[in-house]
Structure formats: C-alpha cells, structure tokens
Amino acid sequence: MLFLPWSNEEEDLIHIIHEETFELYKDLIRQKRSEYVHREANEFEKAFEEHTERGNDDDIDDKNIEYDQDKNEFLIYETGNNEGDIFVEMGINIRTEKVEHFNVPKMIPDADYQRLIRSLNNNQRKYTLNVMNLIKDSDKQFFHFINGGAGVGKSTLIKAVYQSVLRFYNSLPGSNPETIRTAICAPTGKAAALIDGMTLHSFLSLPVNQCKHKLVKLDSGISNRIGVKLKDLQLLIIDEISMVGFTMFQQVDARLQQIMKSREPFGGVSVIVSGDFNQLRPVDDKYIFQFSNSYNALVDNPLSSLFELFELTEIMRQKDDKIFAIALSNIAKGMMTL
Asked: 43: domain range?
C-alpha cells in the first residue's frame, strides 16, 4: 500500500481487507511503483507466482510416499576427540593455522590532511611536530601517553600523528607504500573501526581469552610470516588505552619482542597510547599501571613507567560552548557544576 494515496490511516490502511484493496487498485499501484522503483513494476508478483507454481508441482500426497529404512539410520558418527583441550580453553589454537591479515596504512587525500592539520590547536600541533622530530631520529625509541578528558581531541591528534608519520615514510627514496612502518590499533573492534585501524588481537595474534596465563609463543612459521610483514614497524599507536588491561599490555610487549626478535621493550618499537582512565576500564583485569598481583610488584616495574605523559586540556568538541564543556568534564570526575 506504499504507492496508494490515502488520507485517513484508520479507514484507508488499517481497517481494510488488504488483498481486496490491492486487487481493486493494482493498476494504480503498479503505475506509481514504476515511477519510484527502477525495475519492472510487477517483478515481485511474477517471482511470487513462479514460486507458488513450483510449490504446487512439488506437492505430493503423503500416502503415496514409500519410506526406505536406512540401515545406518541409527549409526553414531565419529566426531573426533571430544576431550577437553586446555589450549583451546586458554584461547590458543594449535591445531589450525591462522591466516594473518594486515590493513595496509592508507593516506588520506592531501586536502583532507591539510584540513586536519589546520584543525589542531597549539598544543596538538606542538606535539605532532615533537613526534615527527623523534621519528626522523629513527635510532631513538620513545613511549608517550596522551591523556585528556572527553572532547579534548585525543582521536584527532593521533590521526594527525598517524597521517604525518605515513607521509614522512612514504616520501623517503625507494619507499614502498605497502610496507607497514606504523600501525594504529585499539582493544575492541568498535574502537578500531572509529580510527580505521585493527584490534590488538588481530594485529599481534593475541589470544582472545587472556586467562591470566603467560602468553604462549607463536608457532615459528606464523611468527616468521608476521615478522616479514612487520619487520619495518617503527611506531605502534594504541587508542582507548583505558580498556587495555595489565595482562594484555604485557602480551603486546611479549609478542612484539618475539616478532621483532628483540629483547628491548615492545621489541624496539616506539609506542604511543591514548585514552582517558575516567572512561571504560579493562574487563576482568587491572589498569596497565597496576600490578596484576603482589608478586609482580616485588620483581617488576610496570611497562607504564616507561611512558612520558602528554596531557590535553583544551576542549575542542564543545569549544563554542565553554560552560557546557566544563559541565561534561566535571561529570566525568564525579563533580557537579553549580
């Protein structure tokens, strides 16, 4: 009835016999439908009629059917070893070989990049230049934590850094755009999609179930294949760091050391993390700056101690409404604005 004019919903659409109404106005409906649907007007009706005819041909009187008893009807088929597998329970699959897939970094158009850089405030611009200077000094590994409340432009800043680093590497003589020298990741699929990146689990083949167990090393073949793809990796950016737990952060470090074949923290790869610890916390784990147990506190320094803090304070999302922006920030801190 979508293509039939009406004036009273109760009388013209609800309290009617739809089949009779369609038959009465079908020519008008088909005419109107053809104006808006760029296919044959009665295509659906034809398909429905053909389906009905096939159904009629397939109708068979059950009385004429002869049922043949399959001698193997009650045969119990072997489904393989059903015993519990501790590796599967730990989120480790040692029976199937995983196909690794990496998103090749993509540069946005120049006009969009220039617009992005112009949108940065003074602190964001200074930080971007600072990172670019560190990147150009390729021998120096660095660890940064970009902190700030909601709306201060953390995601915009890491996008600007990511695109600037991509442009620098792709401008080098003999560079290959398919080479992965920088990567941007997040702990969840939704967060990764928002930054056009990958999840940490996909990028580093981490087990989905952390299980609080020590990370089992990758098979040498898989490790070598990933190593070939990531051998030139210089910078890893992790967004929404508040959702990355202590265990996962340790796994990221261990996996990069294995892949890059280096005992340096994070395999010698520079790392930028971004997030707000007033937002979502890790699931069934502690924050990255908290020890998972008292024993770790005695023998280890947390990886978070390596990171230098860069704090964003200027609210960009609601920059034209300062009072509202302050109110939102105070709510996140558990304070009420008077």
From this structure: 9-49
